[in-house]
Design a protein that fits this description.
Blueprint: H1 2-35, H2 44-62, H3 67-72, H4 78-85, H5 91-111, H6 115-135, H7 139-162, H8 165-174, E1 176-181, E2 187-189, H9 199-206, E3 212-218, E4 226-227, E5 252-260, H10 268-300, H11 307-320, H12 325-344, H13 359-388, H14 390-399, H15 401-412, H16 416-441, H17 446-482, H18 497-551, H19 558-590, E6 598-601, H20 602-612, H21 614-619, E7 623-627, E8 634-637, H22 639-656, E9 662-670, E10 673-681, H23 712-722, E11 726-732, E12 735-743
Parallel strand pairs: 7-9
Antiparallel strand pairs: 1-2, 1-5, 3-5, 4-5, 6-8, 9-10, 10-12, 11-12
Length: 747
């Protein structure tokens, strides 16, 4: 326990030492421009005192313009006469205003049967009306009024300045001056000297550096002649129509102004001088002491135990890291700024004259500053550690307010029209709220706010209510769709984002219905595929197993044995064909087939495929009608794959055509395409859904008594698709038509 307490005390002492040092350095940097002057007389504070003294001196002594002189210079312009005349409106408005002021009082006097008061009020009212009427008939009458107002303003200014004479006398006791008008040679001074003394004599014998704390000569190296221009103009603050600024004569003076060492102790100038000197000493001592303390604290940093500080950091860190990173950065900057301001403005408690009495304040201020410094250090360290952990920093940044706010604004304006409309409506509501609030303070504003609310606010309110209802209906429909129900289509009203959303939801609903139908169809076809594959593979396999078992019979006649072997051979080849076709169909459906394309004559390729079935065609009862162009038709294709497509289509015709019917095969070109059409009359009823014939193991022979694999059309369509062509089926009753389209090569 003793070691822990020692560590804590040492850490607290270090923080106080570091804070003291930091305070001294910050104060030194903040007030260096103020206290690094040579003395008080080089400060802006003294320059202000000097300027105030010269202003008073100019008014009370240097100025030769009296109050009467100012009044004699007064003039009244035509515009001032017109302004005074129309100040309260035209003649009828002013008469009505005066009558309104007296009407209630006159009526009250008459109700009280006090005719004397009523007559006096009427006489007073008529006198004012007569005066106002004279304003509009006589310019001279108005000129006299304006002149009196200006004279009254001058009286107020001079009377106000006379109240400052005491302040001037106090300044006069603090300064010594000797000034001579360069034009009139008249001398103004508060020195006890003879009238024939020269300025040089004054500088050498009266106003000397031994007797003065401050001396300024006019003119000098850095100073021009002292001028009274602009110093006596006290009229600018008056109404420009009542009392315009009266130009006064500006005079130039040469001479000396000084601050004597023998000035009264109550002098603000001398008091400022001594206070500045004391503060300057404190500034230098405190700044140097602070710098030393800061260097010592930095030196001791590695030698003290920081376990209590680390423990506190570990306790705070989980909670601190929950705050968004941008808020942490702003909070750190704000805390650091407050700390610097407090450190920079703590100097008032360190004045020498207040040091003993302000000891409690000094210690309290130091502890408060230490807490601020500690808080700033903790935030800085935690932020630094976070910035070093780049992955976590990126994660923090994604969760911060700025990216989320930017993303929210960006999403709000994904549909620019909707975002802009919403923003404008919110801005209008906000502005209307401000307008109503201002109207309660200033009822005159109601004249503007009421029409705006009636013509804009109420329609916007109904639009918002209507759109809210439309949005709720859309939300209700989506909830029903999510529950698996299919409500009626939403109405699409206008071209707003909500209308577009309603249209999209209707489209999605239709798509979901189609998707569910397709899914049901897919499930059905998958079931049929499994059933058909099982049937077509099991049939030859069952025969092979059966006849294999029969071959095991002892003393089996050779003739039966040969017959069984032939059956097994035929069924095995049949099984191989089924497996090969299934494998090839799967490869083609996945697109995992390499095509060896070359320039091929499609006409010749079709003739070769027909030639392969020449004997089968002759043995059948079908009559083939072939139509083809006399010239070759070339295409860039894989000849072997394309021959397989023709082979499958011709084979299907021989298997599934009705006996004693005609078969039509035609090949023609249209533009850049070759169109091959196969037409035959189906032996079996096909049905309406021809797309299912392209499915694997799907046959026109639903009883599956024929030798087909059910993969012929699927393989043929895949071959056409791989070549960038198409294979389509059309059924008209029992007429079955296959249309193959391929791109032909340029000649």
């Amino acid at each position: 326990m003793g070691t822990k307490w020692k560590s804590k005390i040492a850490l607290v002492a270090w923080i106080l030492l570091f804070t003291f040092g930091l305070s001294g350095v910050v104060w030194g940097l903040a007030d260096a421009n103020l206290y690094m002057k040579k003395n008080y007389f080089h400060t802006e504070e003294f320059e202000g005192e000097l300027e105030q003294f010269i202003n008073y001196l100019s008014f009370f002594e240097l100025s030769e313009t009296t109050k009467e002189d100012m009044k004699r210079k007064l003039t009244v312009t035509a515009s001032e006469i017109e302004e005074h005349r129309m100040r309260y409106g035209n003649l009828s408005d002013q008469i009505a205003n005066i009558q309104g002021q007296y009407e209630a009082s006159i009526q009250e006097a008459r109700n009280s049967k006090n005719e004397a008061v009523a007559n006096a009020l009427i006489a007073e009212m008529n006198k004012k009306i007569e005066d106002i009427s004279k304003n509009f008939s006589s310019d001279e009458h108005v000129r006299e009024k304006v002149l009196k107002e200006k004279e009254q303003a001058i009286e107020e200014v001079y009377n106000g300045q006379e109240n400052n004479r005491t302040e001037f006398l106090r300044y006069k006791a603090s300064f010594k001056y000797y000034l001579r008008n360069t034009e009139t040679e008249e001398v103004y001074t508060n020195l006890k000297i003879s009238d024939d003394e020269s300025i040089d004599t004054i500088k050498d014998e009266v106003i000397t550096e031994n007797d003065m704390l401050f001396i300024r000569s006019y003119p000098s190296k850095d100073t021009d002649y002292l001028s009274t221009e602009g110093r006596n103009n006290f009229f600018d603050y008056k109404n420009e129509y009542v009392m315009p600024a009266v130009e006064q004569d500006a005079s130039l003076f040469e001479g000396i102004i000084a601050v004597p060492k023998s000035a009264p102790s109550a002098s603000s100038v001398l008091d400022g001088y001594h206070t500045y000197h004391d503060n300057q000493v404190v500034f230098i001592i405190y700044t140097l002491t602070g710098l030393a303390a800061l260097l010592i604290s930095i030196f001791l940093y590695k030698r003290i135990s920081k376990a209590p500080f680390v423990a506190a950091m570990e306790t705070v860190e989980p909670y601190y890291n929950r705050v968004p990173i941008d808020v942490r950065i702003i909070l750190f900057g704000f805390t650091a700024l407050i700390t610097l301001l407090v450190l920079a403005n703590s100097s008032h408690v360190y004045y020498i004259q207040d040091f003993y009495y302000a000891m409690d304040d000094i210690l309290a201020g130091l502890f408060m500053e230490a807490l601020l410094v500690l808080l700033t250090l903790m935030q800085g360290i935690l932020l630094t550690e976070r910035f070093k952990d780049s992955p976590r920093l990126q994660e923090d940044w994604k969760k911060s307010f700025l990216p989320r706010g930017y993303q929210a604004v960006k999403e709000a304006f994904l549909n620019r029209k909707t975002g802009t409309q919403t923003f404008l409506m919110l801005a209008f509501v906000f502005a209307s709220g401000i307008g109503v609030t201002v109207s309660t303070i200033e009822p005159a504003v109601f004249v503007v706010t009421i029409p705006i609310i009636i013509f804009f606010g109420i329609p916007i309110f109904f639009i918002m209510v209507k759109r809210t209802g439309y949005f709720n209906r859309i939300a209700s429909t989506t909830s029903e769709l999510a529950s698996g129900h299919y409500p009626p289509d939403l109405p699409v009203r206008g071209k707003s984002a909500l209308a577009e959303l309603a249209g999209n939801i209707n489209t999605l609903k239709t798509g979901v219905k189609i998707s569910q139908k397709e899914q049901a169809k897919s499930e059905r076809l998958k079931t049929e595929l499994i059933s058909n594959v099982s049937h077509d593979l099991r049939t030859p396999l069952t025969s092979i197993i059966t006849y294999t078992e029969l071959l095991k019979t002892p003393d089996l006649p050779e003739e039966d044995r040969n017959s069984y072997v032939q059956i097994i051979d035929r069924k095995s080849k049949r099984l191989k064909v089924l497996i090969d076709d299934l494998f090839e169909a799967s490869k083609m459906a996945s697109g995992n087939v390499e095509l060896v394309k070359e320039r091929v004559d499609i006409v010749q390729l079709l003739q070769q495929a027909l030639a392969e079935y020449n004997e089968s065609i002759k043995e059948s009862t079908l009559q083939f009608r072939i139509t083809k162009p006399e010239k070759p038709v070339y295409a860039i294709v894989d000849g072997q794959k394309l021959w397989r497509m023709f082979d499958n289509l011709i084979g299907n015709i021989l298997k599934y055509s009705l006996e004693n019917t005609r078969v039509y095969i035609s090949l023609k070109t249209e533009k850049d395409q070759a169109i091959i059409v196969f037409k035959n009359v189906a032996k079996y009823e096909i049905g309406e859904n021809t797309d299912e014939l392209f499915e694997r193991f799907k046959r026109g022979d639903t009883s599956r008594h024929t030798e087909g694999s059910g993969l012929g059309l699927a393989i043929a369509k895949s071959i056409a698709d791989l070549h960038g062509g198409s294979l389509d089926i059309e059924v008209d009753g029992d007429l079955f038509k296959v249309i193959v389209t391929l791109e032909i090569a340029e000649l």
